[in-house]
């Protein structure tokens, strides 16, 4: 019902925000799964890291830019923004820091995979587990819209 009373100018930024968030969570799920299933297998670890680079990073950029776009259109980017908007911005900003750390650790770790050392790539991919958990809480907050 609420969607039927939204102005048409909000449709594209909201769609891009939701699309970016869905692709980001899907990419993190693939990354997390490959980290948990790999058990030292370099190929699966490399797939997980490449998913982080090629899927999660662009999806994060789309999600975050569209979030700012829709928040400014709905005038939700001020100090009087609802709690769910604050949760979204907080997890997105913290998630960006974690994503950068994971990308740097994984980039170094992928080079070391040739020598059989998987520690940095595994650490990078386990950061995605933390990000996935945070984004699941965020999805709940966006859907339930508490206070």
Key phrases:
4 helices; 147 residues
Characterise the protein shown here.
- This protein is mainly alpha-helical.
- The chain has one domain.
- It contains four helices and no strands.
- The radius of gyration is 17 Å and the shape is elongated.
Topology order in helix (H) and strand (E) letters: HHHH
Category by helix and strand content: mainly alpha
N- to C-terminal separation? Answer: 19 Å
Largest sheet, described in full? none
Number of helical stretches of at least 4 residues: 4
Estimate the strand proportion.
under 5%
Radius of gyration: 17 Å
The stretches of 5 or more residues where confidence is low (pLDDT under 50) are none
- Bulk shape: elongated
Residue share in helices?
over 70%
Number of strands: 0
Q: Please tell me the overall pLDDT.
A: 87
Overall domain count: 1
In short:
The protein is an all-alpha fold and 147 residues long. It contains four helices and no strands. It has helices spanning 11-38, 42-73, 83-112, 119-144.
What secondary-structure arrangement, pairings included, does this model have?
Elements (H helix, E strand, L loop, with lengths): L10 H28 L3 H32 L9 H30 L6 H26 L3
